[in-house]
Amino acid sequence: MADGGTGEKTEEPTPERLRKLRKEGNVSKSEDVTHAVSFVVVFTVLAAIMPFLADEMMGLFRFSVYVAFGAHEHGDVLASGILAEGTWAMAKAVAPVLAAAFVMGIVLNVAQVGFMFTMKPITPNFNNVNPVNGFKQIFNQKKLVELLKTIVKFIIVSYLSYLALKDALRDVALIVRSDLMIGARVVGGIIWDFTIKIGGAFLIIAAADAFYQKRRYLKENMMSKYDVKQEYKQSEGDPQQKADRRRFHQEIANSAAPTAVKQADVVVRNPDHIAIALKYNKEKGGAPEVIAKGQRIWAEKILDAARDYGVPVVRNVPLAQALDKLDVGDEVPEELFEAVAEVLNFVYALVEKQKQKKGG
């Protein structure tokens, strides 16, 4: 899939790309995970507090009966008292459920995406009111997948609810003859059975959806090789700063060049303004390495050091110019192997002759 002429989207999003998406509020998140776990927790809490709810209802009922049949002249005061008592009882009844839903909503969202604050998702976007764009979004793949999930969940919930209520129908019929506390426990058991069956199905769907959302998120944000290169260039910083850093590093390398020449096998020079010191490690193998280089005044210092340390100096203008494109620490590229090998063979032969003369 090409995009804007940048090439095929074959590369996974880089960490920098993911950080930018996160700042915009664009993260991988499954709403089904939040809904499924919240459903299980909320209904578990509801099943657990059924005796408490029954006790609250009994207390409110007793208070209402006492007020209704008690002898008192101030009826309006008593009515307000019943209203206040009923409101307080209702608040205590729904508080655990609402608290569980609130806490789980926060915990599950943080668990999926971490702590994040951005205004981007709620910033008005006038493209969203474009009827053409809206029509396209109705039939995109994401909407179709969500529709399919909704249909599957509806079918599963309907079937499992039917099974749960079918099994509990006899118990429900007997509740009317039972004590309120016993009835509350029976209802709590029915809710718990309902939660286990439907909640388990929701959790399986949520796990599959989390995997799908992760894959879809990565696929939607794939990058081309060109995009990766451009991002790398941008992350390197301002071109002027890069040039300053390169110049600073070159100055450090130049200042150390005369000392490094002592370890060189040969210095290749351009008559006046280029000097490159090479070293070949026979034990290590590989290609010869540039251990010092310099131009103009630094080239003169390298040549002076070569004379002081007795390092052979070879004049080869094309080779010196080619080697000058390398940095200190770089190995000689393959296309220069033959030319460098000729220079080294010449130097080794020269050194061997000098040894023979001293020996003779």
Short description:
Helices cover 68% and strands 6% of the residues. By secondary structure, it is mostly helical.
Looking at the structure, what is the overall shape? rod-shaped
Distance between the termini: 75 Å
Q: Rg from C-alpha positions?
A: 40 Å
Strand order in space, largest sheet: 3-2-1-4
Q: What's the total count of β strands?
A: 4
Instruction: Report on the biggest sheet.
Output: 4 strands, mixed
The topology string of helices and strands comes to HHHHHHHHHEEEHEHH
| Count of separate structural domains | 2
Q: Helix fraction?
A: 55-70%
Determine the structural class based on helices, strands and strand pairing.
Answer: mainly alpha
Q: Count every helix, treating DSSP H or I runs of 4 or more residues as helices.
A: 12
- Stretches where pLDDT falls below 50 for ≥5 residues? none
Residue share in β-strands: 5-15%
What value does the average pLDDT take? 76
Secondary-structure topology with pairs:
Elements: H1 15-23, H2 31-48, H3 50-69, H4 75-113, H5 131-138, H6 141-175, H7 180-220, H8 225-235, H9 239-260, E1 266-270, E2 274-279, E3 289-295, H10 297-309, E4 313-315, H11 317-323, H12 337-359
Helix pairs in contact: 2-4, 2-7, 3-4, 3-7, 6-7, 9-10
In words, what does this structure look like?
- By secondary structure, the protein is mainly alpha-helical.
- It has two domains: 27-220, no CATH class; 239-359, secretion proteins EscU (name from scop), CATH 3.40.1690.10.
- The protein has twelve helices and four strands; from the N terminus they run αααααααααβββαβαα.
- A four-stranded mixed beta sheet has the order 3-2-1-4, sandwiched between helices.
- It starts with 14 loop residues before the first helix and ends with a helix.
- The model has no long low-confidence stretch (mean pLDDT 76).
